[in-house]
Specification:
It is a single chain. The protein is an alpha/beta fold. The protein has a single domain (2-165), classed as Rossmann fold (3-Layer(aba) Sandwich). The chain contains 8 helices and 6 strands, in the order βαβαβαβαβαβααα. β1 (2-4), α1 (6-11) and β2 (23-26) form a beta-alpha-beta unit. The longest helix has 18 residues, at 131-148.
Amino acid sequence: MIIANDAAIDAALVGRPIFATTHATVGSGLRSPGGWTHTFGGGFIASQARIVTADGAELRSIYKASDVVVVPSRNEPFGIVILEAWSAAKPVVATKRGGPAEFVWHEVNGLHVDDSPDSVAWGLGTLLADHGHCRWMGRNGRAAVDAVFSWDCIAEQTESVYQRLS
């Protein structure tokens, strides 16, 4: 399963049949599933698509069932979705724009891509072509969440800023 948003849907338009999957899209402001089925027609991403609005345990289950999480935002200030993916030990395909460019380590815990359909397609194809490497990057993402983005780390960093300002 791949979790993606509208920009990843655009990647299907390149028409390369690289893999088949169930495609779950999480979020709002998304295209209609009927449009996806018509557009994909068994191409780059299989025609099984569903929109999921989830949180809590259901969202964690979706992440755990996925192979890759795609965050091809054209403007992403931080990228909490990436941390959620890494918490489930999933690698990410993220655009080079905004916050993710600073904390996604290319070829270590995910892939940096441009916000074009060809580039997103390359990222998906690259990760899915080597499942072992894909899982390794997911484990590295989980380690990054534990080491850098845990609540304890965030609290220490926040306290440090307050101490410098006082």
